[in-house]
């Protein structure tokens, strides 16, 4: 009788298993969107004491729940340093290299990684991502001068490298560009370069070296393009009018990265026709919001390409 009961039950087990196999599995894709934010007062001094409850994030105008909050941004960095080695910066080339070496030594921490790219006629990756400051500085010391300036190609390649960087949940991606601002080759266009940076989640920090022989009539189109890129990606631009100001620019850049807040939220479900989604960040306290300035990226591409 027991054997018969088992044999009778066996088809039921198979039927139940078959039914379970037919049950559709619902997979929900979630994406963590990191939003580094710099908050300064009316005098452009960083505001150091904000809490998670002081911020509100909106995507496409809709409030989002903050899932990650880090104060003073001790979170790890993946940074690409792209250095212009074209003929137009020849008079400041040695100063440029020396200041970059000092910045690397000061900035690179155990949890960080850096990549070195040079650009002139061509764009070359000199040092792949590393945590070794000595290796980075050896690469900087071996940079060689070229002729033209492939600025947009350099931004595109740097963005690709940042896409391939480590993917810790709280890692920030930074692109530092040391250049006089011009793009003089026919390669990538402005829109292709900035879209690549936005897709990589990179904040662009241009250090714009004004040529010594510059005059009021010089072509500043490249400078304006870099400034717009910095604003769109949540970065910041710095002008260097004198070679002695280069160290100051690197110091300001370092301070900017060390006084950030890192906010993160899980994006709403993605739709097939999604493209660029806009982000806005506000302070919840009206009195503080009236005088504070917040800097952050303008949005991200939701299609995942």
TrEMBL record:
Alphabetical list of Pfam families matching this protein: VWA
Keywords: Signal
Keyword Transmembrane helix: no
Signal peptide (residue range): 1-21
InterPro entries documented for this protein: VWF_A, VWFA-rel_acidobac-type, vWFA_dom_sf
VWFA domain boundaries: 78-257
Protein name in the entry: VWFA-related domain-containing protein
């Amino acid at each position: 009788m027991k054997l018969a009961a088992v044999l009778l039950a066996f088809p039921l087990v198979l039927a139940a298993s078959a039914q379970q196999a037919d049950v559709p599995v619902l997979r929900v894709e979630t994406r963590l969107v990191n939003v580094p934010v710099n908050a300064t007062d009316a005098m452009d001094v960083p505001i150091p004491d904000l809490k998670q409850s002081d911020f509100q994030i909106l995507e496409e105008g809709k409030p989002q729940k903050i899932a990650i909050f880090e104060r003073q941004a001790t979170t790890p960095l993946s940074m690409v340093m792209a250095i212009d080695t074209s003929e137009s910066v020849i008079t400041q080339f040695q100063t440029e290299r020396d200041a970059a070496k000092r910045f690397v030594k000061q900035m690179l921490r155990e949890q960080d990684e850096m990549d070195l790219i040079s650009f002139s006629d061509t764009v070359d990756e000199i040092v792949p991502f590393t945590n070794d400051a000595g290796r980075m500085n050896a690469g900087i010391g071996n940079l060689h001068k070229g002729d033209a300036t492939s600025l947009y190609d350099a931004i595109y390649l740097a963005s690709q490298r940042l896409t391939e960087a480590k993917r810790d949940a709280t890692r920030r991606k930074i692109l530092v560009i040391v250049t006089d601002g011009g793009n003089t080759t026919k390669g990538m266009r402005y829109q292709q370069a900035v879209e690549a940076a936005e897709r990589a989640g990179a904040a662009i920090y241009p250090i714009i070296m004004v040529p010594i022989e510059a005059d009021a009539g010089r072509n500043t189109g490249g400078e304006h393009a870099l400034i717009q890129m910095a604003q769109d990606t949540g970065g910041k631009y710095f002008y260097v009018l004198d070679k002695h100001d280069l160290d100051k620019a690197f110091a300001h850049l370092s301070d900017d990265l060390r006084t950030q807040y890192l906010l993160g939220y899980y994006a709403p479900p993605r739709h097939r026709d999604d493209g660029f989604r806009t982000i806005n960040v506000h302070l919840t306290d009206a009195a503080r919001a009236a005088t504070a300035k917040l800097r952050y990226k303008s949005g991200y591409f939701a299609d995942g390409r």
